[in-house]
């Protein structure tokens, strides 16, 4: 048996090896929530196009920080 016939002989139907980014085919850092199947890097590039936006609940300023610590 040669190396080429053994290397990818196992079927990849489940587990980490079966999933990849739908944009760049990268397998690490995959975001699977909501069936996105995007890697972190592609998600950051495409987030606005998909409809995600950052939400900041509290804006901390030095003035607010001093009043809460006193």
TrEMBL record:
Family annotation (InterPro entries): Ribosomal_uS14, Ribosomal_uS14_arc, Ribosomal_uS14_CS, RIbosomal_uS14_euk_arc, Ribosomal_uS14_sf
Entry's Gene Ontology BP terms: cytoplasmic translation
KW rRNA-binding (keyword) present: yes
One cellular-component annotation, GO: cytosolic small ribosomal subunit
Keywords, comma-separated and alphabetical: Metal-binding, Ribonucleoprotein, Ribosomal protein, RNA-binding, rRNA-binding, Zinc
Gene3D superfamilies given in the database record: 30s Ribosomal Protein S14, Chain N
Cofactor(s) needed: Zn(2+)
GO molecular function: rRNA binding; structural constituent of ribosome; zinc ion binding
Entry similarity comment: Belongs to the universal ribosomal protein uS14 family.
Protein name: 40S ribosomal protein S29
Species the sequence originates in: Colletotrichum nymphaeae SA-01
């Amino acid at each position: 048996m040669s190396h080429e016939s053994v290397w990818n002989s196992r079927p990849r139907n489940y587990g980490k090896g079966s999933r990849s980014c739908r944009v760049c085919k990268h397998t690490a850092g995959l975001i699977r929530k909501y069936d996105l199947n995007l890697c972190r890097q592609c998600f950051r590039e495409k987030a606005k196009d998909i409809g995600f936006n950052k939400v900041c609940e509290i804006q901390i300023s030095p003035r607010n920080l001093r009043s809460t610590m006193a």
